[in-house]
Amino acid sequence: MSMLTSVATPERILLKLDWNVIRRLDGLLQGDYRSLFYGFGVDFADLREYQPEDDIRYIDWNVTARMDTPYVRQYHEDRDITAWFLLDMSPSVDFGTLQTQVEKRTMLIDFVTVISRLLTRHGNRVGAMMFGNKIQHTVPARGGRLQVLRLVNDMLKQPRLSNIPTTNLKSFLNGALNSIKRRSLIFVLSDFISEPGWEKPLSLLAQRHEVLAIRLYDPRETELPDVGMVVLEDSETGEQLFVDTHDKKFRKRFADAAQKREQDLKTAFKRTGVDVLSLSTEDDLVHEIVRLAKRRQQSRR
Q1: pLDDT tens digit string along 149-196?
Q2: What is the pTM of this model?
């Protein structure tokens, strides 16, 4: 399903994903993507007092403070959707293995291409912000097939960064928070290997927009194989370390540290209240998108 995007053109990527992914999604979801995309594309209508069944993300905290009573914003549904992809293109996203020949960056490009195609063919607009050690590039939101091709082309052209300080998603998300004014559907694609502090701006984004976090990972980031002496390199800083993977105690420490990182990440996401899809370099994109759609559909009931 996925491909080596480094040797593919935007047209070829889109054609292959149209054939291998979108056709299958159309069959499985029967062309109904409302279960996947909902609660977006709305315009402010009025304010009223909070009721127990209301979504707390719609509370207007300024009015609530003045009135000393919780108030929520009401919105009119709008058929037009504006979607933004916030793309982490930092060095750790370039992690991949010889076994799969698929990097997290490859999964990122495939996911963005598929979702952009689904949205734009129904008349909606898509845009993107690409981040390395700062916001490197912005693609203004527009519609149409040419916009999808532009997104793919610009993602492919983003340089592979190295030897930079640890990724700071907090500054990226704050930048998006200040830049995206109209209520939108926002996808945050990252491996969330970052300095701490990104939870608050992600939570604030979710109060203003419909937000989906797409957490990219490779299974081999959590467990070392027993293959003898290897060189481990920090993809963010470039620092290298020789290790003996025959050492069971070292492999155990590595696995324990990875497990703690996973648990910390789950706790952080829970605090933000954002819907999360964990997407592995070994996953079938169709299966994962269908799983996400069903999960979101059930959560609305």
Answers
A1: 999 999 999 888 766 667 889 999 999 999 998 889 999 999 998 888
A2: 0.77
Between residues 71 and 95, the one the model is more confident about: 71
Burial state string for 263-295 with b = 16 or more CB within 10 A and e = fewer than 16: eebeeebeebebbbbebbbebebbebbbebbee
SS3 149: helix
| Distance in angstroms (rounded) separating the CA atoms of residues 242 and 246 | 12
Smallest Cα–Cα separation from 103: which of 234, 218, 222, 232? 218
Residue 116 domain-assigned (yes or no): yes
Q: What's the mean per-residue pLDDT of the chain?
A: 80
Structural domain for 10, as ranges: 5-41+78-219+274-295
DSSP 152: H
CB distance 178 to 242 below 8 Å? no
Residue 264 lies in a domain: no
Residue 249: inside a domain, yes or no?
no
pLDDT band of 251, cuts 50, 70, 90: low
Residue 35 phi, psi dihedral angles, 5° rounding: -70, -20
**Over the range 105-138, which residues count as b (16 or more CB within 10 Å of their CB) and which as e?**
bbbbbbbbbbbbbbbbeeebbbbbbbbbbeebeb
Tell me the mean pLDDT in the region 125-147: 91
With cut-offs at 50, 70 and 90, classify the pLDDT of residue 42: very low
> According to the model, what pLDDT value does residue 12 have?
92
CB-CB contact of 104 with 191 (8 Å):
yes
Write out the two tokens for 69.
């009573």
Identify the bridge partners of residue 233 per DSSP, sorted by sequence position: 240
CATH code, domain with 136:
3.40.50.410
Would residue 258 count as lying in a domain?
Answer: no
User: How many folded domains does the chain comprise?
Assistant: 1
